[in-house]
Amino acid sequence: MNGSRVLVLNSGSSSVKYQLLDMADGSRPASGIVERIGEGPVTDHAAALKQVADELAAKGLGLDSPELAAVGHRVVHGGTRFTEPTLITDEVVGEIEKLIPLAPLHNPANVTGIKVARSLRPDLPQVAVFDTAFHSTIPEAAARYAIDVATADRWGVRRYGFHGTSHAYVSRATAKLLGKEPAEVNTIVLHLGNGASASAVRGGTCVETSMGLTPLEGLVMGTRSGDIDPAAIFHLSRVGGMSTDEIDTLLNKRSGLAGLCGDNDMREIGRRMGEGDRAAQLAFDIYIHRLRKYVGAYTAVLGRVDAIAFTAGVGENSAAVREAAMRGLTAFGIEVDGVRNALRSAAARLISTEASRVAVAVVPTDEELEIASQTFDLVSA
Ligand code: ADP
Fold it and tell me: Can you give the pTM of this predicted structure?
C-alpha cells in the first residue's frame, strides 16, 4: 500500500456524506454531501456515489488516484457478528445484508454504498466500521433485556448501542484532554445530536450505553421518544387502533423534542424559551430530566467517575443544556464553571471548576477521523 488517503463514506437513506482524509498530514482535501437521493436527478445510491466520484475527480482527487489507500464505510448495525473494523469481502457484504432486519432503515443504504464503491474500485481495500462495535464489550448484565432468553436469542433482541464511533473517539479524546491514558479514566460520554445517546466507559472499555436493539431507546432526542413503557405500544394498538408502522413513525419521527413542542432544534427551543413559551420550556425540562437520570445511573454503574464529556450538535453548542444537566450535582463531585461553560470554541475544553472532582468537558466528536483512522490502521497493518 502506497497511499495515505482514506475516503470515508456515510451512506444514509436519503444522502451520502463523504470526506477524504490524508492520514500522513491530517489534512482533509475534500468533503461533501449528496442529498435528496430518489427525489431529483440523483435517482438512487448508485447515482449518488457516481456524483461523489465525479466531484472528487473534478478536484483531481478521483477514486483512481494513487494516493487513495482505502475506503472506509460507516455501517450502522454490526449485530453480534461484527465487533471490529472489517475488511470488506463478498462474504462480509452478505453478512451485513443478513443484519438488515435489525436495522431496516440504515443497513440497506450502507450495503448499497459498499456495493457501488466496490464496483467503482474493485481492487481497492474497503473497510466497514460499525456504529455498534464499541459497545460490544458491554457485559451481559447490561446488554440483556429481562425477557425470555430463548425468544430474545432467536430474534436477536438485546442491547447493541449506536454512535459507537463517536463514543470511542470522544472517550479517548477526553482522556487525552486530561493528560491521561484511556485505561486510567472512567468517563460518561453524552452524545447529544439530533439522535442522542449516553455511554459509560470504564478505562477505555464501554460498559453501558443508552440506545438498545435500535436507536430508539434512552435519552429524549430530536424526534425520538427514548425510553417509554413498552406497554404504551400495546395500548396505542389495542385502544388507539394504531398500526405497528404508525406507532413506529410516532416514536421515531413525531416524538422527542419535536413531538413535545413542534421543534427539534435546540436553538429554536432556546429562543422560544426566552419568549416564555411553555411548551418549549417543558420539552427542555423533560430532555434535561432524562439526561440527569442517565448521568446518575451511569455514575452508579461506574462507581468512580473521572470525567463527563458533552459532544455532538447540542452537547458541543448548548451551554444552557450543559448547565441545566449538571446543576446542583456538587454532592456527586460535579461543579461546572459558568464562565468556562459559556465560552464558545471548536476545541476540546474543560468547563468544570478547579474544585470539581469530576472533570466536565466539551469534546467535539469527529466520526470521520475515527472511521478513517480505524480503516487506515487495518489496511496498513
Ligand atoms: P446529527 O445527529 O444529525 O449528526 P448533530 O450532532 O449535528 O446531529 O446535531 C444537530 C443538532 O444540534 C440540531 O438539531 C440542534 O438541536 C443542535 N445544535 C446545533 N447547533 C446548535 C447551537 N448553536 N446551539 C444549540 N443547539 C445546537
Answer: 0.96
